[in-house]
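ugh ok fine here u go
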Amino acid sequence: MSILNFTVEETNLIAIYKAETAATTLANIDDALPDMDDEEIITIAESAHRKLSALTEPEFSALSFTLTDEDEGNG
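structure:
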């Protein structure tokens, strides 16, 4: 499976819930979904979840998920 492109919003969401493994990260997002009350955030979380689910553990481990400002470096 090729590594999918994550949006800045997806990357930030994953960074918030990231754990050692993709499986645990997915579980963290699943656990948080019922508490999300913004449709845009829910859509981002669901998209990130789909993309993470497609990754193997080595692919997940090779990626860096850090909080990023979308406008960072554009000033």
